[in-house]
């Protein structure tokens, strides 16, 4: 049986972003550290994979240093893509100069196909608002996709480098979604949202809900940020998420620290309402994956309550989300790990990118405004491709 090998050096001098290749199995960069995994030793596809993860980690020669990496889809009945890699390399967090030095122009002649069409998306928002008005649920997140078809093969390595260069404070990831001998298909993104991290007994989650597009004009950009902080609709949407997250974590944690109100965080394209919640793990045997599964999906990507929101998503969205609004990350034999919400992402095959973006629908939402929010969220991937001008056509 093959055994996972670990890079014996753990050093901030290692730029694992530069070491990433298009056939690398997994890459994950967080504000704390970087992980690069190569090769696939053992695949875990159980729809309830907790026991299989524990068994896979325990079977390694040094279970405490072993790692499982991968992604979980949005819908609970769908198979995850988790695996034990053949080799794992770790380093400290990327420095901005490491990120910026690797950015290069990447632009293709692409044909863009939205699904659903903008008018159909707006109709879906109207239908959801009617359902919310009837009392069936409080919130639902509706998403749409853009399929970009290029004339030439997409440079997956350069796309990841570009994503990392514009995502200093978030979670940049790349996951090969096929075994070594299968046609290459990847999930890549630059998520701003931490679903859950566990380091020893410390547990951290940082939900984002309530958004506004950035403006290139500094005065207008500040006005939008201030308006978001005072928006009754967005504050209500955010509170739904925070209340649900706190309720889910309470059985696992003591001393939960929950700020009285949200703060603002920004990416290159968006402002978000943010609340960082931390606590101390009661039972030290509970690992990061179990904790993340207890949270997933939060109302930030699904809605509230979750079951009627998920049902409405199935009715209205004319596509399969796959791993979009799932979770992506890693866990180790100590129980530590980091899991980001799989947003600002795309699934990539040789000459095709499928981008995803969603918006939270609550009482007071306006269909055209939610459409504009999804278009703004597409800009993360489009900018990395050198196609930011296509956002307005989305």
Automatic annotation (TrEMBL):
Keywords: Isomerase. Transmembrane segments: none annotated. Its EC number is 5.4.4.2. The keyword Transmembrane helix does not apply. GO terms for molecular function: isochorismate synthase activity. It comes from the Bacteria. It catalyses: chorismate = isochorismate. Residues 119-377 form the Chorismate-utilising enzyme C-terminal domain. It holds the Pfam family Chorismate_bind. Belongs to the isochorismate synthase family. This is isochorismate synthase.
